Amino acid sequence: MLSNSVSFRRTNGGVGAFVENVDLSEPLSPELVNTLKSGLGEHGVLFFRDQDIDADAHQAFAECLGNIDINRFFKPVDGYPKIAEVRKEPDQKYAIGEDWHTDHSYDQIPALGSILLARELPSRGGDTMFSNMYAAYEALSDGLKEVLDGLQANHSSRHRFGYQSTANKNSKDTGGRLGNPDLATQDAVHPVVITHPISGKKALYVNRAFTLGFVGWTEAESKALLDLLYNHASQPEFTYRFEWEPGSVAMWDNRATWHKALNDYHGERRLMHRITLEGEALYA
Prior knowledge:
The chain is an alpha+beta fold. The protein is built from 8 helices and 16 strands. The strands form 4 sheets. The protein has an 8-stranded mixed beta sheet. Strand 4 and strand 5 form a beta hairpin. The longest helix is centred in the C-terminal third of the chain and has 15 residues. The mean pLDDT is 92.
Protein backbone atom coordinates (compact mmCIF):
# COMPACT_ATOMS: atom_id res chain seq x y z
CA MET A 1 0.00 0.00 0.00
CA LEU A 2 1.47 3.36 -1.05
CA SER A 3 1.57 6.28 1.36
CA ASN A 4 -0.17 8.54 -1.19
CA SER A 5 -3.35 6.54 -0.62
CA VAL A 6 -3.30 7.37 3.10
CA SER A 7 -5.22 10.32 4.48
CA PHE A 8 -5.31 11.97 7.90
CA ARG A 9 -8.66 13.39 8.98
CA ARG A 10 -8.45 15.63 12.03
CA THR A 11 -10.80 14.93 14.90
CA ASN A 12 -13.38 17.52 15.90
CA GLY A 13 -11.51 18.03 19.18
CA GLY A 14 -8.22 19.50 20.28
CA VAL A 15 -5.92 16.64 19.32
CA GLY A 16 -5.53 13.66 17.03
CA ALA A 17 -6.46 12.47 13.55
CA PHE A 18 -8.16 9.46 12.01
CA VAL A 19 -6.04 7.48 9.56
CA GLU A 20 -7.96 6.29 6.52
CA ASN A 21 -7.07 3.77 3.80
CA VAL A 22 -4.66 1.71 5.88
CA ASP A 23 -5.04 -2.00 6.64
CA LEU A 24 -2.82 -2.84 9.61
CA SER A 25 -3.11 -6.58 8.96
CA GLU A 26 -0.97 -6.16 5.82
CA PRO A 27 2.79 -5.56 5.71
CA LEU A 28 3.58 -1.84 5.62
CA SER A 29 6.04 -0.36 3.17
CA PRO A 30 8.90 1.81 4.50
CA GLU A 31 7.28 4.76 2.76
CA LEU A 32 4.00 4.18 4.57
CA VAL A 33 5.77 3.72 7.91
CA ASN A 34 7.48 7.10 7.45
CA THR A 35 4.16 8.70 6.55
CA LEU A 36 2.58 7.33 9.72
CA LYS A 37 5.50 8.50 11.86
CA SER A 38 5.26 12.00 10.42
CA GLY A 39 1.51 12.01 11.00
CA LEU A 40 2.01 10.88 14.58
CA GLY A 41 4.47 13.69 15.22
CA GLU A 42 2.10 16.22 13.70
CA HIS A 43 -1.19 15.10 15.27
CA GLY A 44 0.00 13.53 18.54
CA VAL A 45 -2.36 10.56 18.32
CA LEU A 46 -3.61 8.51 15.37
CA PHE A 47 -6.88 6.55 15.35
CA PHE A 48 -7.68 3.57 13.14
CA ARG A 49 -11.13 1.98 12.73
CA ASP A 50 -12.26 -1.47 11.57
CA GLN A 51 -8.90 -3.20 11.91
CA ASP A 52 -9.08 -7.00 11.94
CA ILE A 53 -5.69 -7.85 13.46
CA ASP A 54 -4.53 -10.62 15.75
CA ALA A 55 -1.69 -10.44 18.28
CA ASP A 56 0.91 -11.35 15.65
CA ALA A 57 -0.21 -8.55 13.33
CA HIS A 58 -0.37 -6.11 16.24
CA GLN A 59 3.22 -6.92 17.13
CA ALA A 60 4.37 -6.84 13.51
CA PHE A 61 2.88 -3.36 13.07
CA ALA A 62 4.67 -2.13 16.19
CA GLU A 63 7.99 -3.59 15.07
CA CYS A 64 7.69 -1.73 11.74
CA LEU A 65 7.74 1.50 13.73
CA GLY A 66 10.56 0.70 16.15
CA ASN A 67 11.76 -1.46 18.99
CA ILE A 68 9.23 -2.60 21.57
CA ASP A 69 9.60 -1.33 25.14
CA ILE A 70 8.32 -4.10 27.41
CA ASN A 71 6.42 -2.71 30.39
CA ARG A 72 7.77 -3.93 33.73
CA PHE A 73 4.52 -3.72 35.68
CA PHE A 74 1.59 -4.83 33.49
CA LYS A 75 0.57 -8.46 33.10
CA PRO A 76 1.55 -9.64 29.59
CA VAL A 77 -0.75 -11.42 27.18
CA ASP A 78 -0.32 -15.20 27.34
CA GLY A 79 2.23 -16.24 24.74
CA TYR A 80 3.07 -12.62 23.85
CA PRO A 81 5.45 -11.13 26.43
CA LYS A 82 5.80 -7.92 24.40
CA ILE A 83 2.06 -7.18 24.59
CA ALA A 84 0.59 -5.88 27.85
CA GLU A 85 -2.97 -6.37 29.05
CA VAL A 86 -4.93 -3.30 30.10
CA ARG A 87 -7.81 -5.02 31.80
CA LYS A 88 -10.67 -4.28 34.21
CA GLU A 89 -12.99 -7.05 35.42
CA PRO A 90 -16.67 -6.56 36.35
CA ASP A 91 -15.97 -6.75 40.09
CA GLN A 92 -13.10 -4.23 40.01
CA LYS A 93 -13.53 -0.51 40.71
CA TYR A 94 -10.04 0.82 39.96
CA ALA A 95 -9.14 1.41 36.31
CA ILE A 96 -5.45 1.50 35.56
CA GLY A 97 -4.56 4.84 33.99
CA GLU A 98 -7.69 6.70 35.04
CA ASP A 99 -5.70 9.88 35.79
CA TRP A 100 -4.03 12.07 33.17
CA HIS A 101 -0.54 10.75 32.47
CA THR A 102 2.30 10.16 30.04
CA ASP A 103 3.59 6.58 29.87
CA HIS A 104 7.14 5.85 31.03
CA SER A 105 8.20 9.44 31.74
CA TYR A 106 10.03 7.92 34.74
CA ASP A 107 12.57 6.32 32.38
CA GLN A 108 15.82 8.07 31.49
CA ILE A 109 14.88 7.48 27.86
CA PRO A 110 11.07 7.60 27.86
CA ALA A 111 8.91 5.54 25.55
CA LEU A 112 7.93 7.04 22.21
CA GLY A 113 4.32 6.01 22.66
CA SER A 114 1.92 3.10 22.59
CA ILE A 115 -0.39 1.22 20.25
CA LEU A 116 -3.62 0.22 22.02
CA LEU A 117 -6.00 -2.29 20.46
CA ALA A 118 -9.57 -2.94 21.64
CA ARG A 119 -10.23 -6.61 22.44
CA GLU A 120 -13.32 -6.65 24.70
CA LEU A 121 -15.43 -3.56 25.30
CA PRO A 122 -18.23 -2.74 27.75
CA SER A 123 -21.69 -2.06 26.37
CA ARG A 124 -21.18 1.63 27.13
CA GLY A 125 -18.37 3.85 28.38
CA GLY A 126 -14.70 2.95 28.62
CA ASP A 127 -13.56 5.74 26.29
CA THR A 128 -10.07 7.24 26.38
CA MET A 129 -9.29 10.95 26.65
CA PHE A 130 -6.28 12.56 25.02
CA SER A 131 -4.83 16.05 25.48
CA ASN A 132 -2.56 18.09 23.21
CA MET A 133 0.69 19.19 24.85
CA TYR A 134 1.71 21.28 21.82
CA ALA A 135 -1.44 23.37 22.10
CA ALA A 136 -1.25 23.50 25.91
CA TYR A 137 2.25 24.97 25.71
CA GLU A 138 1.37 27.43 22.95
CA ALA A 139 -1.59 28.78 24.95
CA LEU A 140 0.60 29.79 27.91
CA SER A 141 1.65 33.40 28.38
CA ASP A 142 5.04 34.48 27.06
CA GLY A 143 6.15 35.16 30.62
CA LEU A 144 5.30 31.67 31.86
CA LYS A 145 6.87 30.09 28.77
CA GLU A 146 10.10 31.91 29.60
CA VAL A 147 10.07 30.46 33.12
CA LEU A 148 9.24 26.93 32.00
CA ASP A 149 11.76 26.85 29.17
CA GLY A 150 14.57 26.90 31.71
CA LEU A 151 13.21 24.26 34.09
CA GLN A 152 13.75 20.55 34.54
CA ALA A 153 11.49 18.18 36.47
CA ASN A 154 11.93 14.96 38.43
CA HIS A 155 9.89 11.92 37.40
CA SER A 156 9.60 8.57 39.21
CA SER A 157 7.85 5.20 39.06
CA ARG A 158 8.22 4.45 42.80
CA HIS A 159 5.05 6.11 44.11
CA ARG A 160 2.88 4.57 41.36
CA PHE A 161 4.17 1.00 41.06
CA GLY A 162 6.35 0.41 44.14
CA TYR A 163 5.48 -1.32 47.40
CA GLN A 164 3.99 1.86 48.90
CA SER A 165 1.95 2.76 45.82
CA THR A 166 -1.82 2.97 45.84
CA ALA A 167 -1.98 0.26 43.18
CA ASN A 168 0.07 -2.14 45.30
CA LYS A 169 -1.90 -1.40 48.47
CA ASN A 170 -5.09 -2.09 46.52
CA SER A 171 -3.67 -5.27 44.99
CA LYS A 172 -6.94 -7.12 45.54
CA ASP A 173 -8.74 -4.66 43.30
CA THR A 174 -5.99 -4.65 40.70
CA GLY A 175 -6.50 -8.42 40.53
CA GLY A 176 -3.07 -9.39 39.20
CA ARG A 177 -3.17 -6.71 36.54
CA LEU A 178 -0.03 -5.06 37.96
CA GLY A 179 3.05 -6.63 39.51
CA ASN A 180 6.78 -6.46 40.12
CA PRO A 181 6.80 -3.63 42.69
CA ASP A 182 10.47 -4.45 43.35
CA LEU A 183 11.24 -3.18 39.83
CA ALA A 184 9.79 0.28 40.53
CA THR A 185 13.16 1.96 40.94
CA GLN A 186 13.14 4.39 38.04
CA ASP A 187 13.96 8.07 38.54
CA ALA A 188 14.60 10.52 35.73
CA VAL A 189 15.06 14.23 35.06
CA HIS A 190 13.59 15.75 31.89
CA PRO A 191 13.10 19.27 30.53
CA VAL A 192 9.70 20.73 31.40
CA VAL A 193 9.41 21.92 27.80
CA ILE A 194 10.81 19.61 25.13
CA THR A 195 11.44 20.00 21.43
CA HIS A 196 9.57 17.14 19.81
CA PRO A 197 12.00 14.85 17.95
CA ILE A 198 9.69 14.38 14.94
CA SER A 199 7.76 17.63 14.53
CA GLY A 200 10.30 20.06 16.01
CA LYS A 201 7.47 21.73 17.94
CA LYS A 202 7.70 22.64 21.62
CA ALA A 203 5.56 20.57 23.99
CA LEU A 204 4.85 20.62 27.71
CA TYR A 205 6.39 17.56 29.35
CA VAL A 206 5.08 17.09 32.88
CA ASN A 207 2.24 14.83 34.00
CA ARG A 208 0.21 14.24 37.14
CA ALA A 209 1.06 10.52 37.47
CA PHE A 210 4.85 10.56 37.42
CA THR A 211 6.19 14.12 37.80
CA LEU A 212 7.32 14.84 41.38
CA GLY A 213 8.50 18.43 41.16
CA PHE A 214 10.94 20.88 39.62
CA VAL A 215 14.67 20.52 40.08
CA GLY A 216 15.84 23.03 42.71
CA TRP A 217 12.30 23.87 43.89
CA THR A 218 10.59 22.89 47.13
CA GLU A 219 7.67 20.49 47.11
CA ALA A 220 5.23 23.31 47.93
CA GLU A 221 6.61 25.57 45.20
CA SER A 222 6.48 22.77 42.67
CA LYS A 223 2.95 21.74 43.59
CA ALA A 224 1.57 25.23 43.07
CA LEU A 225 2.93 25.54 39.54
CA LEU A 226 2.33 21.91 38.58
CA ASP A 227 -1.32 22.14 39.63
CA LEU A 228 -1.68 25.25 37.49
CA LEU A 229 -0.18 23.44 34.50
CA TYR A 230 -2.29 20.31 35.05
CA ASN A 231 -5.49 22.34 35.22
CA HIS A 232 -4.46 24.36 32.19
CA ALA A 233 -3.48 21.41 29.99
CA SER A 234 -6.65 19.42 30.70
CA GLN A 235 -9.00 22.16 29.47
CA PRO A 236 -11.57 20.96 26.92
CA GLU A 237 -10.10 22.92 24.01
CA PHE A 238 -6.97 20.75 24.11
CA THR A 239 -8.70 17.38 24.46
CA TYR A 240 -10.49 14.70 22.46
CA ARG A 241 -12.61 11.80 23.72
CA PHE A 242 -12.09 8.67 21.64
CA GLU A 243 -15.01 6.24 21.55
CA TRP A 244 -13.77 2.69 21.20
CA GLU A 245 -15.41 0.25 18.80
CA PRO A 246 -14.50 -3.36 17.91
CA GLY A 247 -11.39 -3.20 15.74
CA SER A 248 -10.33 0.25 16.94
CA VAL A 249 -6.66 1.10 17.38
CA ALA A 250 -5.16 4.22 18.96
CA MET A 251 -1.49 5.05 18.56
CA TRP A 252 -0.27 7.99 20.62
CA ASP A 253 2.96 9.90 21.03
CA ASN A 254 3.90 10.34 24.69
CA ARG A 255 6.06 13.35 23.85
CA ALA A 256 3.09 15.30 22.47
CA THR A 257 0.06 14.11 24.44
CA TRP A 258 -1.45 13.05 27.74
CA HIS A 259 -4.12 10.37 28.01
CA LYS A 260 -6.44 8.84 30.58
CA ALA A 261 -8.94 5.98 30.68
CA LEU A 262 -12.51 6.88 31.64
CA ASN A 263 -13.68 4.64 34.46
CA ASP A 264 -17.43 4.72 33.81
CA TYR A 265 -18.39 1.09 33.15
CA HIS A 266 -18.44 -0.65 36.54
CA GLY A 267 -19.85 -4.16 36.40
CA GLU A 268 -18.54 -4.87 32.89
CA ARG A 269 -15.28 -6.17 31.46
CA ARG A 270 -12.88 -4.15 29.32
CA LEU A 271 -9.78 -5.73 27.79
CA MET A 272 -7.22 -3.89 25.69
CA HIS A 273 -3.86 -5.00 24.31
CA ARG A 274 -1.06 -2.44 24.46
CA ILE A 275 2.38 -2.38 22.87
CA THR A 276 4.78 0.37 23.86
CA LEU A 277 7.57 1.63 21.60
CA GLU A 278 11.07 2.66 22.65
CA GLY A 279 11.84 6.36 22.39
CA GLU A 280 14.88 8.56 22.57
CA ALA A 281 16.43 11.07 24.94
CA LEU A 282 14.47 14.31 25.26
CA TYR A 283 15.91 17.80 24.90
CA ALA A 284 14.69 21.31 25.60
